[in-house]
Amino acid sequence: MNTTERKNADTLRIGAQEFSSRLWVGTGKGVAYPLMRQCIEASGAQICTVAIRRIPTGEKPGEMMTDFLHGLTLLPNTALCYTAKDAVLTAQLAREALNTDWVKLEVIGDPDTLFPDNEGLLEAARELVKDGFKVLPYCIDDPIVCRKLEEIGCVAVMPLAAPIGSGLGIRNTTNLQIIIEKSNVPVIVDAGVGTASDAAIAMELGADAVLMQTAIYGARDPLQMARAMKAAVEAGRLAYRAGRIPRKLYATASSPAEGIIGS
After folding, report:
1. Cα–Cα distance between 45 and 210 in angstroms, integer?
2. Where are the domains of the chain?
3. For the segment 175-223, what is each residue's pLDDT rounded down to a tens digit?
4. Set 60, 104, 182, 230: catalytic member
5. Residue 130 annotated among the catalytic residues of the structure
6. Nearest CA to 128 among 79, 95, 173?
7. Cα distance between residue 140 and residue 142, in whole Å
8. In the chain, at which end, N or C, are there fewer CB atoms within 10 A of the end residue's CB?
9. DSSP state, 247?
10. Secondary structure of the chain: what % helix, strand, coil (to 5)?
């Protein structure tokens, strides 16, 4: 599928798999598993991220997080990894534990901002691609870094909209638009979404999907927010495909000037 076909497709293709939903949801924040599942179902998400280093180890069968994720495509991530070595090891553990070669690659460079370490990210991506993984890297909203990740062989890029969990929304629409226009792989906007309008803007820019977690589980009513996010992603995608009108400095009458009834 070439870039034009991908941008206009009804479904989202990652590698050889296709998905009807363009909203991805995380599984953290300490939310109760039954509510987590309800929110995922309300959002329509088909892909869920799972932080391998945060999965509780003392849970009983039938009460484990993965028991509430049946029927979903799991995307393990390497959250809390601060070196390329740790990220690669965590990805390999995830492949064994969840029987998947997909990984959302995170190599964090700073504990306060949780911004990615570009050098470590590129190093880990090279090693994991060589090892047969389908790598989806969480990265800074830098078109050059995204290009390098694509050239390495990542199946998608996941630039942040704002710092993880900040709810600030898209802080740099220009960079995201450049990334989207230049990328030959899917672009999933990751981190920083706060409300439905943020998700809609990301999709209107032409993003292939949006990933969120805190925006849903941290809302006053998570279930209602999950429904709002589903509608926002769908509306933003429709608006992108429809094509917005050009911005103009002055007004343009919506009714023709000809045939006006005289006074």
Report:
1. 10
2. 3-242
3. 999 999 999 999 999 999 999 999 999 999 999 999 999 999 999 999 9
4. 104
5. no
6. 95
7. 5
8. C
9. P
10. 40, 15, 45
Among 12, 22, 62, which residue's Cα sits nearest to residue 44? 22
Beta strand residue intervals within 66-190, DSSP E: 73-77, 102-105, 134-139, 158-159, 188-190
Contact 159, 141 (CB under 8 A): yes
192 torsion bin: left (phi>0), alpha (psi -120 to 50), beta (else): left
Owner of token pair 């959302």: 104
Indicate the CATH number of 3-242 among 3.20.20.70, 3.40.640.10, 3.40.50.12280, 3.40.50.300.
Answer: 3.20.20.70
Residues ≥6 apart with Cβ < 8 Å to 83 = 107, 120
User: Structure pTM?
Assistant: 0.91
Burial (0-12, 13-18, 19+ Cβ within 10 Å), 7: middle
